[in-house]
Each structure stands twice: as C-alpha cells, then as structure tokens.
Design brief:
Number of strands: 5
Distance between the termini: 37 Å
Largest sheet: 5 strands, parallel
Oligomer: single chain
Radius of gyration: 17 Å
Number of domains: 2
Strand order of the largest sheet: 2-1-3-4-5
Bound molecules: cobalamin
CATH class of the largest domain: Alpha Beta
Helix content: 55-70%
Shape: globular
CATH topology of the largest domain: Rossmann fold
Order of helices and strands: HHHHEHEHEHHEHEH
Length: 211
C-alpha cells in the first residue's frame, strides 16, 4: 500500500466514523513506518474537516460527528507515541477553548502538534473562564496563550481574556483560532496572531517566540 492510500483510508475512516478501520489503519501506518505527523495531518484531520463541512450542509448529524471524532481520537492515541518530538524548540503554551464553548476537537489537534514540536502545553480544556486563563498564566508563566472559539457567542469573550492576561504579563503573546474567528478579528481585538489550522498554529508560535 502506498502512503497516499493509507492517508486516504484514515480520512475515509474518520468520515464514516469507523473506529475499527481508523485504528487498524493507524497500526498499518506504524508498521509501514509512515510519519505519524503526516498521518494525522493528511489523513485524520482532513477527514474531520470533511465531516465538519458535511455537517454544515446538513448531510450528517451530531451522532455521526461524535463517531467521527471518536474514530479520529482513537487513531491519534495509536499514532501519538510515534510522533517525532522536536527537543530543540522549547517554551510553554497555555491552550483553552473560551467560556461557553465546548468544541475542543481543533484545540486538541493544536495541542498535539505543539507537543510534537517540543512545547510544554498547559491544556485548560473547554469552556475556560477568564479567571482560569489568568490563574494559569500566573502559575505557569507561558510565552504564549492560545484561545479557541467555534461559536460567535463565545468569541466575544476573547477581548476580556486578552486584557486580563496582559495585566498579569504585558509581554505574553496571545493567539486565537477556531472556526468562529479570523485574522481580521485577531487584528480587531489586538491578538498577536491567528492560524486556521494546527500546523500553522505551531509555525505561528515558533515565529512569536523566536524559535
Ligand atoms: C463537532 C461539532 C460539534 C460537537 C463538538 C464535539 C467536540 N468535542 O468538540 C458537538 C456535537 C458537541 C457540538 C455541539 C454544539 N454545536 Co457544534 N459543531 C461541530 C462542527 C460540525 C465541527 C467542529 C470541528 O470539530 N471541526 C474540526 C476541527 C479540526 O476544526 P476546528 O475546530 O476549526 O480547528 C482547527 C482550526 O480552526 C485551528 N484551531 C482550532 N483552535 C485553535 C486555537 C488556536 C490558538 C489556533 C492558533 C488555531 C486553532 O486548528 C484546528 C485544527 O486544524 C462545527 C461546524 C464546523 N464546520 O466547524 C459545528 C458548530 C461549531 N457548532 C455549532 C453549534 C451552534 C453547536 C451547538 C450550540 C448546537 C446546539 N444547538 O446544541 C452545540 C454547542 C455547545 C457549546 N456550548 O459549545 C455552530 C456554531 C455557530 C456559530 N457560528 O456560532 C457550528 C459552526 C455549526 C453550525 N453552522 O451551526 N458541535
């Protein structure tokens, strides 16, 4: 099997929410010594993006979305130990989905790729309050804080978090992402950066911390 066929199988497994196929294919990928990062990016993540689009078009519904997320997560668990961790770049990144929002699939991908790039990630989880972001900045002195939002109703909380975090540390870099936000929203609220996928998020962090 060619590596492109493995990526496609991973994508199809996520789209159809088939955890048996996603985990078996992840094992195949490992035995073929394929790059785990590429399997996640070119295979699983692509599948999740397709399912998200199908959901928007009302061609799949919530139960299928959750099955797809599970199929992806189970394959990620198999691939994760095989990610080549870059020990050079260092620094701490605090990540969280903003208050009122429980969409954490994208944030989890950003976390995974940050860890693979050698960053220490403090994952605050989902529906994270402003106070929790602030407490985490005080506790772990990160170089970067990343906020995720998939909903127009939750993204409006971002400016308050930025103001509160900057009060604690004026030098901290704050980045945003998730389907609800954009580069222009980042500019409007004075965030230091925006990225529309997990790989770009890691590059952005590298640029901001000078790695
Ligand atoms: C999956 C999903 C769910 C799942 C979430 C499961 C989970 N654990 O996350 C479930 C079924 C639970 C769900 C619930 C709801 N959902 Co929903 N959901 C989605 C869906 C279909 C896909 C989101 C997703 O996971 N995409 C795949 C990931 C990989 O992409 P991503 O999140 O964008 O992440 C990538 C980038 O954005 C970036 N990124 C992400 N975070 C960050 C952070 C930083 C710092 C950076 C730099 C980059 C970055 O990197 C990621 C990887 O490449 C979207 C539709 C869509 N097209 O987005 C709706 C959507 C987000 N949901 C929506 C809604 C309305 C809801 C509900 C309110 C539904 C309801 N009526 O109950 C609830 C919300 C509950 C709540 N309080 O949050 C709306 C939001 C509308 C809006 N604009 O406000 C959407 C857009 C669907 C729609 N068109 O109506 N949902």
């Amino acid at each position: 099997m060619k590596k492109e066929d493995v990526y496609k199988k991973l994508t199809d497994a996520v789209v159809s929410g088939d955890e048996k196929l996603s985990t078996a294919t992840a094992h195949d990928a490992i035995s073929m010594e394929l790059d785990a990062y590429e399997c996640i990016q070119q295979g699983l993540n692509k599948g999740m993006q397709i399912v998200s689009d199908l959901y928007e078009q009302r061609k799949v519904f919530v139960p299928q979305i959750l099955r797809s997320a599970r199929a992806m997560n189970m394959a990620v668990e198999i691939l994760k130990p095989h990610l080549e961790v870059d020990s050079k770049s260092s620094g701490t990144v605090v990540l969280g989905v903003v208050e009122g929002d429980i969409h954490d699939i994208g944030k989890n991908l950003v976390k995974l790729l940050c860890e693979a790039a050698g960053y220490t990630v403090v994952d605050l989880g989902k529906s994270v309050t402003k106070d929790a972001f602030v407490a985490s900045v005080k506790d772990s002195s990160p170089q970067v804080v990343g906020m995720s939002s998939l909903m127009t109703t939750s993204m409006v909380g971002m400016p308050d978090v930025i103001a509160a975090v900057r009060e604690v540390d004026g030098n901290i870099k704050i980045i945003i992402g998730g389907g609800a936000v954009s580069q222009s929203y980042a500019d409007t609220i004075g965030a230091d950066g925006y990225a529309d996928d997990a790989a770009k998020a890691v590059k952005l962090i590298g640029k901001l911390v000078g790695a």
